Amino acid sequence: CSSDISDSVTVETWPDPNSIDYTNLVTLYPNPMYSNDNQMYVIIDTDEDGSAVIDIYDVTGRLVIPDFHTQLSEGRNRIGVQTESMTPGIYIVYVLIDSFDPITKKICIVR
Fold first, then answer.
1. What whole-number distance in Å separates Cα of residue 44 and Cα of residue 56?
2. Which of 38-42, 79-83, 98-102 has the lowest mean pLDDT?
3. Smallest Cα–Cα separation from 28: which of 108, 98, 111?
4. Distance between CA 41 and CA 29 in Å, rounded?
5. Contact residues for 91 (Cβ-Cβ < 8 A; gap 6+)
6. For a surface tag, which of 8, 54, 55, 74 has the fewest beta carbons within 10 Å of its beta carbon?
7. At 24, is the secondary structure helix, strand, or coil?
8. Tens digit of pLDDT for each residue in 7-27?
9. Helices (H) and strands (E) in the chain, counts
10. Region 81-92: what's the mean pLDDT?
11. Backbone conformation region of residue 61, classed left if phi is above 0, alpha if psi is from -120 to 50, else beta
12. Is pTM beyond 0.85 here?
């Protein structure tokens, strides 16, 4: 009895780490937020210790909050960012976590 083993074996290729969508690592809360809240949270879920840099831009590309550096611990990290200087509008939150590709999220501040 001869059979071809290749018919019963499945080979899966693991995705390239650089092609994985890491945008789920970062959540903004509350979103939308009210202009009188004065603080938003950047929530970063990570499976190891590390660091992050957060920049916040308005829709014209003006840097509103530059180079907010923070250390991360394994698990869920909640980083409070003071927003009292931000007027109602849409902002882009740019997060760079160690060696990951940059992650961008939008946040809306309403009256």
1. 15
2. 98-102
3. 108
4. 5
5. 56, 57, 58, 59, 64, 106, 107, 108, 109
6. 8
7. helix
8. 556 455 455 555 556 668 899
9. 0, 8
10. 92
11. left
12. no
